[in-house]
Design a protein that fits this description.
The complex is a heterotrimer of chains A (about 190), B (about 230) and C (about 550). Chain A is α+β, with helices and mostly antiparallel strands and about 190 residues long. In chain A, about 45% of the residues lie in helices and about 10% in strands. The N terminus of chain A is likely disordered. Helix content of chain B is about 25%, strand content about 15%. Chain B has a five-stranded mixed beta sheet with strand order 2-1-5-3-4, with helices on one face. A two-stranded antiparallel ribbon of chain B has the order 6-9. A two-stranded antiparallel ribbon of chain B has the order 7-8. In chain B, strand 3 and strand 4 form a beta hairpin. Chain B starts with 5 loop residues before the first strand and ends with a helix. The model of chain B has no long low-confidence stretch (mean pLDDT about 95). With about 550 residues, chain C is α/β, with parallel strands linked by helices. In chain C, helix 6 runs parallel beside helix 10, helix 7 runs antiparallel to helix 8 and helix 17 packs antiparallel against helix 18. In chain C, strand 11 and strand 12 form a beta hairpin. Classes of the chains: A alpha+beta (about 190), B alpha+beta (about 230), C alpha/beta (about 550).
């Protein structure tokens, strides 16, 4: 690769020292990372094409659970896109998470049907009872609360996803009870 | 066929134009003033500020002069009462979106937002103001970005990509949270892709990006993109 | 595989299915799965084995039947007996009584005749009837015969003419005539040409497209193939939401199967047509439903709309001529080619042929997915098909067209549903969401909910949408906190009209619709909030009661 281009290439901001491309993984502290290998293989499958950026970001999130700046830098370097562009795309789409989610994830559907059926009150109750804010995690990192716009389960609204399980026709008490029992189980297991 | 000139009227003035020119370009040739903010000669069109909207007879819609090509027989109005009113609302919205206080702004007296507000008679802002408080990034040797004064016209982004070719700047987030980002949200002094060419400061219509310790009138140079584009074509 | 093989597959499959006396269809769509449909499917399979009727009765996994409120749903054929809320115990009873003894279990049946009778299922013809994972099932029900007809008997222009005769209009919301769009692209210079199937159903409260993809993926693929043949495109992208894992999985399997049989790929069925389909995932951006934004997103950029012209028909994906078509429109294509444009044009209302899928949700007795002829009234949809409002409450408003649709009052219930009359009333067809609202809801709160949605989904490119909507939201917040002034009504109305007229793309242009329609039809409610500081639904003025109104 052209060295000049490499020096000016995207992802070397604060995260990378401007050395050879091969070194980037080392600098990112990602060496010997099996997950990185998976990502690399996927990017190779996509021919390192810039137009596959969204697909690659999806893959990265699937592998890591979220996409932090180090991973973004690695992707930008690999597919030779400007850092600002990659960062811009990753932050535009709300599906991509920049922070590591908590151990258990509650996703409340805030689609119209669920809203009309009172999901807002349930969300407020979760926030209050487990001291977690929508879009964030609790201080101990055990619980995250996310909002999504319609999961398409409108006919059984209000719907809430607890760790990948869609629960339909929920009530405030039911949700609070479920979450409490999950957290209780967690406690017992760690003891 | 394709090279025949097009006849149309702008504000009842008969004008002739070449094929594939925009309403704004034709208006400029004939000295008809249509206010713009995001548009800049020499850069691609963005059509984001919506100040240059005009009316075309026979349609109830409004058209952005910066991107709508002229067609034969068009009857364009650039200055109806409705358009004047809408431009005032647009400017008021921009003024209320972040923290615009002219008296403490480096661009005071050299600001396109300020000039347009004066010109179009925006004497107060009827909306709740946001008074954002983003941190100033002044760590770079001489370039400063104050996002509180940014109107998201993206001129800096386009000049960085299209003219300089560095693509240091881009937008991050979306909607009301959209911001100018430098690389991976880096501080300017840490950017490795920035060439410190100052073009972003030259084209910024407000005081959002400027050169420290420089007279603002000396920094601003709206024609830089067009000048370089023409030089390159020589 | 060659053209004639489609017919052979159909014959073999029909013979195979005829050997069974009964067929149990277990709905395994996103609506029924959370209610235990997958386990139920296994239960039925075990039960027919256990009772030794496996040679007599076929148990199949299918897509959505439409009666999502009473899931899990099971349909027994012949006779289309719909069983509601089926549990493993009920499953045993169904197998013993219905399959073995031949006596349908009356008390477990879904008894709502009008729900079925008032519908006209064209696009959803196979939903709940075929196994979406088995291409043979689709072929046996007449699938891919329209493609064969096109490839053997019709020229691309004749295909477009047939679509023109049908009067089909885009189901994505704006209602642009499909044949017109196709002929633009077919005449446009530049190659390759592309097709994008829009399955980015971002509207909260709408799940029609997802259901279609889950229930009948091959109809979508066949529609794409015919479109590709007609306009001369060799590559299509299906742009879908990442939040739809089951739809993605179903589509992927269908595409793989179709490639295996050489229905897509190089030299389709031995002809000179080449066609390739790729799935692209969106990532949570409502604005990506806009046609220039979807292009940006497929190209891997920020989904920000750009001004038109140039239109995608001349300069779309990577600057090439591109057709962007809603999946519901595409699913109509095979039917039109099979039965002729004239047949299709007779369905629905005069200036709006065909049917439309709607998700009916909210405060309604039978929420679910329905398909009705164009021109049907809202009253028929809400009361006859939807079964009215629960708990004997009264209907207050109907939201038509998603977050940028309109709030219509009960006096407009006899409004026929088509593009023009909805537009006159201030709503839009959108992607087909109908949400019933009863008197427990406050319309100020509801309008603010939609504005919140649009504020969060605005791309931030143009001033009116990015800043204007935030101002509207602030005014609503003030009203709901009891700090509103009567002048706010005028300000809201002025700002809404301004945003509608000056925004760059469809999102901004329609975002103020809920505000404008509530102002138009429910002004009294605003006055109550502003003058009397009273909210009949008891949703507002709760700042100190711990309810978050941010």
């Amino acid at each position: 690769m052209d060295t000049k281009k490499n020096l000016r290439s995207s992802s070397q901001s604060i995260l990378l020292s401007p050395k050879k491309k091969d070194n980037s993984a080392v600098n990112l502290g990602l060496k010997n990372d099996k997950r990185l290998l998976k990502l690399e293989n996927f990017m190779r499958k996509m021919n390192y094409k810039g137009c596959a950026l969204l697909e690659i970001l999806h893959k990265a999130q699937e592998i890591y659970g979220y996409i932090n700046k180090n991973v973004l830098a690695y992707i930008a370097e690999a597919i030779e896109l400007p850092a600002s562009h990659v960062f811009g795309v990753a932050t535009f789409y709300s599906y991509f998470k920049q922070q590591q989610p908590g151990k258990h994830v509650i996703t409340a559907c805030l689609g119209t049907a669920c809203y009309v059926k009172g999901v807002e009150e349930i969300i407020c109750a979760i926030e209050k009872n487990f001291s977690v804010k929508r879009g964030g995690s609790s201080d101990d990192g055990k619980l995250s609360l996310f909002i999504t716009r319609c999961i398409g389960a409108c006919a059984i609204g209000p719907a809430i996803i607890i760790d990948d399980d869609i629960i339909g026709n929920v009530t405030e008490d039911l949700v609070l009870e479920k979450i409490t029992s999950i957290l209780e189980r967690e406690k017992i297991e760690t003891c | 066929m394709t090279n025949e000139p097009i006849n149309l009227t702008i504000d009842n003035i008969k004008v002739t134009a070449k094929q594939d020119t925009t309403i704004l370009e034709v208006a400029k040739q004939y000295g008809i003033n249509i206010p713009t903010l995001c548009e800049l000669e020499g850069l691609s069109s963005y059509s984001g500020c919506r100040l240059c909207l005009v009316e075309i007879r026979g349609s109830t819609k409004l058209f952005a002069a910066c991107t709508t090509p002229v067609t034969s027989g068009m009857e364009i109005t650039t200055n109806s009462d409705k358009l004047k009113e809408y431009r005032k609302i647009t400017l008021s919205l921009l003024l209320s979106e972040r923290t615009h206080i002219c008296s403490v702004c480096v661009a005071n007296g050299n600001c396109e937002l300020q000039d347009l507000s004066n010109e179009l008679g925006v004497d107060h802002v009827p909306f709740e103001r946001e008074w954002t408080n983003h941190t100033l990034d002044s760590g770079h040797n001489f370039l400063v970005i104050d996002r509180n004064r940014c109107i998201l016209c993206t001129r800096c982004i386009r000049v960085c990509q299209e003219t300089e070719g560095a693509h240091t700047l881009d937008l991050k987030n979306r909607g009301k949270d959209a911001q100018i980002t430098i690389d991976f949200d880096a501080l300017w002094k840490n950017s490795s892709s920035c060439t410190s060419c100052r073009k972003c400061a030259k084209v910024c219509p407000t005081g959002a990006i400027y050169v420290d310790d420089d007279f603002i009138s000396k920094t601003k140079d709206k024609n830089i993109a067009n000048f370089l584009l023409k030089r390159r074509q020589l | 595989m060659r053209l004639a093989d489609i017919q052979k597959i159909a014959e073999i499959e029909v013979d195979f299915q005829r050997a069974y006396k009964y067929r149990i269809n277990v709905c395994c769509s996103s609506g029924c799965i959370p209610l235990g449909a997958i386990n139920l499917l296994k239960t039925f399979q075990d039960l027919v084995t256990e009772h030794g009727v496996i040679e007599n009765c076929l148990v199949a996994r299918t897509g959505c039947v439409g009666t999502c409120s009473v899931g899990p749903v099971v349909v027994v054929e012949p006779g289309d007996y719909i069983y509601e809320k089926v549990t493993p115990e009920k499953a045993r009873k169904i197998v013993i009584d219905h399959i073995i003894l031949g006596l349908p279990v009356k008390k477990l049946l879904f008894e709502n005749k009008t729900f079925i009778e008032k519908q006209h299922r064209l696009v959803l013809r196979n939903a709940g009837k075929i196994d979406p994972y088995r291409i043979e099932d689709y072929i046996a029900s007449g699938g891919y015969s329209a493609l064969v007809k096109c490839l053997t008997k019709l020229s691309p222009q004749e295909v477009i003419d047939e679509i023109a005769a049908s009067g089909l209009r885009g189901r994505g919301g704006a209602g642009f005539p499909t044949a017109k769009k196709w002929s633009f692209v077919s005449r446009a210079h530049g190659s390759p040409k592309y097709i994008i199937a829009n399955l980015d159903e971002g509207d909260p409260g709408v799940f029609a497209n997802r259901t279609l993809a889950e229930a009948d993926p091959h109809a979508l693929i066949e529609g794409l193939l015919i479109a590709g043949y007609a306009i001369g495109a060799e590559k299509a992208f299906i742009y879908t939401r990442a939040e739809y894992p089951l739809a993605i999985d179903t589509l992927k399997k269908a595409i793989n199967k179709a490639s295996e049989l050489n229905i897509i790929g190089k030299n389709v069925l031995g002809t000179s047509l080449n066609f390739d389909i790729e799935i692209r995932l969106g990532a949570g951006a409502f604005v990506a439903g806009e046609e220039t934004a979807i292009i940006a997103s497929v190209e891997g950029r920020r989904a920000m709309p750009r001004p038109r012209p140039p239109y995608p028909a001349t300069a779309g994906l990577w600057g090439k001529p591109t057709v962007i078509q809603n999946v519901e429109t595409l699913a109509n294509i095979p039917l039109i080619l099979q039965n002729g444009g004239a047949w299709f044009s007779k369905i629905g209302s005069p200036n709006c042929a065909g049917t439309k899928c709607f998700s009916i949700t909210g405060k309604i007795n039978n929420p679910g997915l329905i398909e009705v002829p164009m021109g049907i009234t809202l009253r028929e949809v809400i009361f006859d098909i939807g079964g009215g409002i629960p708990e004997n409450r009264s209907l207050k408003a109907v939201l038509v067209g998603g977050p940028s649709g309109g709030c219509l009052p009960d006096i407009l219930l006899d409004l026929p549903i088509d593009y023009e009359s909805l537009k006159t009333a201030g709503a839009i067809m959108g992607s087909g969401g109908i949400v019933a609202i009863d008197d427990q809801s406050c319309l100020i709160d509801t309008a603010k909910f939609f504005i919140d949605f649009c504020v969060a989904e605005s791309c931030g490119k143009c001033t009116p949408c990015r800043v204007g909507l935030v101002k509207i939201k602030e005014i609503f917040k003030k009203i709901m906190q009891g700090e509103g002034k009567i002048e706010d009504i005028n300000l809201l109305s002025k700002l809404s009209t301004f945003i509608t007229e000056t925004s760059l793309c469809g999102l901004g242009q329609t975002a103020p619709n809920p505000v404008l329609t509530t102002l138009r039809y429910f002004k009294q409610e605003y006055v109550e909030h502003l003058v009397d500081r009273s909210c009949k639904a008891d949703k507002c003025f709760k700042e100190n009661k711990g309810v978050n109104i941010n």
